[in-house]
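Supplementary Methods S3. Input chains for the assembly prediction are listed below.
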Amino acid sequence: MTSWISGMSSTTGPRRQPEPDPDEAWPADERDSLVDVPGGVRLQKVLAAAGVGSRRHCEELIGAGRVEVDGEVVRRFGARVDPQHQVIRVDGKRIPAREDLVYLALNKPAGVLTTMSDSHGRQTMADLLGDRAERLFHVGRLDYDTEGLMLLTNDGELAHRLTHPRYGVPKTYLADVTGPVRRDLGRQLMTGIELDDGVATADKFRVVETAGSRALVEITLHEGRKHIVKRMLAEAGHPVSRLVRTQVGPITLGSLKPGATRDLSVREVGELYAAVGM
Ligand code: URA
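Predicted structure tokens for the full assembly:
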């Protein structure tokens, strides 16, 4: 028995073939418009060298359409790109493709200057970094007696943006202060503290623990003024006896030992770029 549908089709003549999709006419790996950069490096090699994963994993990412070069998805394994000048992203996050760029986290101990040299012979960042060939910038400053997370890089544009007030990158500190802490201290800090050079405001505040006449507090702010945390807390009646920076934007100090450095991961560098719109 002829079904109603097949009956219909037999009475309407041969079925019209759909128009070929011009995109589908090409194998997936020849579709993207990216023109190979003469003398460029194969995309999967660039991704693997940046630490994204093995070549095979990188090829899978490319095949899955998760890799962009200068804003265009590239699915062709053999595409040759220029890692010095092109912006390469995986899942929308920029990767550190330039092999000459270095991104480090350092746990600065107290008693170290945030400079690369000192005419008075005090310990500096350079003493902690050893004989590195790159000319590294420290991203912002910590006081001589402040400890904790310092980012260092030779990526000048990133370093500039991370310290520029326009990008408002938040920094978090643990402060050992004279207690006991008033219940409304957090509200006061987040409303704004009047200082000699203008009002300073915390983004977040919490009391981590209290012990007798001391308290450990955590404060987050996106201010970059000199001695800002110490001045804010002192003005609020809680002088700081020890200050440790635990986070800059998306990067945390974690368990890095005092005086030690570590390379930031590809993901961390991508998050830093994202934090400053790069
Ligand atoms: N605020 C300070 O008071 N000191 C630092 O080192 C950093 C922030």
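Residues 142-143, 146, 227-230, 243 surround uracil (CB under 6 Å). Residues 1-14, 20-26 have pLDDT under 50 and may be disordered.
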